[in-house]
Design brief:
This protein is mainly β. The protein is built from two helices and 32 strands. The radius of gyration is 22 Å and the shape is globular.
């Protein structure tokens, strides 16, 4: 519904102002993993505080600070007793602020290969993310890990953790995740997966009807349709530049710095542009995998744009899911939207689009069986990066539907600029 989607974005962008540039990124241990008693921690932090990050720390349990280090980088090992932990890695900045990231893990004295995903005998999409850790009694540790597909080694990596995505055609696969230790031993865990069809796809959404747009300006970023100091336009049926001959031009300008424009399209549910009102509410609740696929082109993107944002929104049963992916031109990094805590989370993954050329972005996400938002992978111009980060959904009353967003953010001078979008597709299943 129009009002509901607008409100969700207003809240999202307002909180971006307050905490967009703050976050803790934990690369080790892997969330949901099983590890040995000596737990390796690696993390980094960013902040909007002009004075920077003061320190970082690790809480194995609530109010139990076990380690602190100065600065915005953390790299250490802690010995933990066997058990289940909901660890917290936190940063404190020099302005009195703090942000944190939760990392649930299981510590064990047993040895073996512990597969976080995919689940054994599960049905998955064609992009299958393998996430696993290994433990061993070998005093020298684990040397490497690998994935076998139908008895053939298809991937290997050094160390005691594995995070890799395989592209598989529909069918059933007998796979094994294996570890080799430095004492000559090895162990493996079998994982059977069935790759289902790639789902249904809305094609060339940029050329569809039903688009709505709203401006958003500092300091509160409330949606506006007539915004002082902000101009924008949307022009469809563009043949040049275009890949299909039917691109759409999105334009933003004005005089108020850091003003943004949101374009959104209701795909399923009330106001559907695709003829799928889903009056019986039987489609949206059964959707769990989504792929945002877009070609975008712009002049001097890294100098005139503050950021470009790509969002998928799902609402049903009083639950809200917003998968927000933002390419930050000022830091050349991807950022993720945390629906539950309503804040942006920085990543260390680079985002480096090319100006004056077409950029192909593919963004894979999932609503898990426990109704969490899983960010799986992002592929820009043929280079795939694994995200593998989960967030909780948020509660919302009465909202329903599947909505796609595209957003352009203005820079410190609110420089007028255009982007062209073509072959904007959304695959859902």
């Amino acid at each position: 519904m129009k009002k509901q989607t607008r409100l969700s974005r207003a809240i999202l962008v307002f909180l971006f102002t307050a905490s967009a540039f703050a976050g803790v990124t934990v690369t080790s241990p892997i969330s949901g993993s099983t590890v040995g008693s000596s737990v390796k921690f690696a993390a980094s932090a960013t902040t909007s505080c002009s004075k920077g990050v003061a320190s970082m720390g690790i809480y194995p349990e609530t109010n139990q600070l076990a380690y602190v280090v100065k600065g915005n980088l953390l790299n250490t090992s802690l010995n933990l007793n066997p058990g289940t932990y909901n660890l917290t890695v936190q940063e404190w900045d020099n302005c009195g602020g703090a942000t944190k990231t939760k990392v649930p893990i299981t510590v064990t004295t047993s040895t073996g290969v512990w597969v976080v995903s995919p689940a054994n005998n599960s049905k998955v999409s064609s992009s299958v993310n393998y996430l696993a850790t290994a433990t061993t009694t070998c005093s020298a540790g684990v040397a490497s890990m690998g994935i076998y597909q139908n008895s053939q080694l298809v991937y290997s990596v050094a160390g005691a953790s594995l995070n890799h995505t395989l592209s598989l055609s529909p069918g059933t696969y007998q796979t094994t995740v294996k570890e080799w230790d430095k004492c000559g031993g090895s162990k493996g865990t079998s994982v059977t997966v069935t790759v289902t069809s790639s789902g249904k796809t809305f094609y060339n959404i940029q050329a569809a009807g039903g688009w709505q747009s709203y401006g958003q300006q500092p300091p509160d970023f409330v949606d506006c349709t007539s915004c002082s100091g902000l101009t924008w336009a949307m022009n469809q049926n563009i043949s040049n530049p275009s890949l299909s001959g039917n691109a759409t031009q999105y334009v933003i300008g004005g005089t108020t710095a850091y003003s943004d424009v949101l374009w959104l399209n209701h795909l399923i549910g009330p106001f559907s542009s695709q003829g799928l009102p889903d009056a019986g509410e039987t489609i949206v609740p059964n959707l769990h995998d989504f792929t945002y696929d877009i070609e975008f082109w712009g002049n001097s993107l890294t100098t005139v744009s503050n950021a470009l944002e790509f969002d998928i929104n799902q609402y049903f049963n009083n639950m809200g899911f917003i998968w927000g992916l933002e390419c930050r031109m000022w830091s050349h990094q991807w950022a993720l939207w945390d629906s539950y805590n309503k804040k942006w989370t920085s990543t260390s993954l680079p985002c480096t689009p090319v100006s004056n050329a077409w950029n192909h972005l593919i963004f894979d996400v999932e609503r898990t069986s426990s109704n969490q938002l899983l960010y799986k992978t992002v592929t820009l111009n043929g280079v795939t990066q694994t995200i593998n980060q989960t967030f909780d959904h948020f509660s919302v009353s009465g909202w329903y539907g599947l909505v796609l967003n595209y957003q352009m953010d203005g820079d410190y001078k609110q420089t007028n600029y255009s982007t062209y979008v073509d072959q904007l597709n959304l695959t859902y299943q």
